[in-house]
Amino acid sequence: MPRKKSAHAASGPPGLPRGTRRVRLVLPAGLSAGLGYDAVGMCAEDGKRVMDRLPGIGCVFACDERWWWIVPAGSHIGLVWPAVTSYSVGAYVGPPSSPRTVRASRNPRLVHLPEGDSPYTPPIPLYFMACHIAGVMPCWSVTE
Fold it and tell me: What's the whole-model pTM score?
C-alpha cells in the first residue's frame, strides 16, 4: 500500500486555514540538529537588537519583516513566549501578514550563520531577551 504524503510537505503544519502555505526553514549543510528544531520569530527591528546583545547566536533567518531564530524543538514547553514573538513548531514560517509585505515577500534567507556546528540559539537567554524587549515578566511552568 503506498504511503500518503505528509500534510506538512505541501501546506505546513496541520491546523492552518485551507490554502495557507508555509515553508520550513532549511538549515545550512553541515549543521547538526539532533534535537530537532523550532523557530522563534520577531520583527526585524527587535531581531537586530537581540543580535547586538545576545552571545552564542545560532542560525537566524529573515523572511519578509520577521527574523526567525532556530531553537531546539520543544523550547516552548513550559514557557509563555511574549506577544512580540511567534513560536513555530517545526520551524514552518507563514505567509506575510500585511499587503505591504506581500509585495516584498521572498523566500527565507540566512542572516546569521553560527561559528560552530550547532544551529541553535540558546532558548532561555533568547526568551529572557524577548521578555525584556516586550516589557513583560518571564513566566514559566514546571508542571507541563
Answer: 0.79
